[in-house]
Amino acid sequence: MTVVAEIKGAEGEADSDDKPKRSKKKLLIVLVAVLLVGAAAWWFVLRPTPPEEPKPGEMLPLESTQINLADGHYLKIGIALQMVEGAHEIDGSKALDATIDLFSGQDVTEISQEETRKALKRKLGSELEERYHGEVMGVYFTEFVTQ
């Protein structure tokens, strides 16, 4: 009888050791599940989204203007503004002013070079974007004649 009691006692001890291991496993499983749910919530709800690129809207062609260059030369330039979708009616005088400021006094041989002309166009585009507070997203030359 004592052998049976010892066996039962040994089984009882084994059962009591399994209970803490099981609760540790359950705790670990619950912790992993909570982390997965939290990560999923962050991904779908709280994750910052990048701002959307503005969509092109109306094109606003401006009247050509003549600009004095260096050494008695001049430039006849026409531009068109690419507005963003939903932009309010804009006045082209700021664009013409920026164009005159940028091109006045330039050397005719420099602005006749394609690389220089593209660089000036990029600079004009960024200046117009700033002056029109993001309502203009691009500028195009519609006329570019030097003499």
TrEMBL record:
It is a single-pass membrane protein. It comes from the Bacteria. The chain crosses the membrane at residues 27-46. Pfam families: FliL (PF03748). Residues 1-20 are annotated as: Disordered. Keywords: Cell membrane, Chemotaxis, Flagellar rotation, Membrane, Transmembrane, Transmembrane helix. It is found in: Cell membrane. InterPro entries: FliL (IPR005503). Belongs to the FliL family. PANTHER family: FLAGELLAR PROTEIN FLIL. Controls the rotational direction of flagella during chemotaxis. This is Flagellar protein FliL. It comes from Nocardioides aquiterrae.
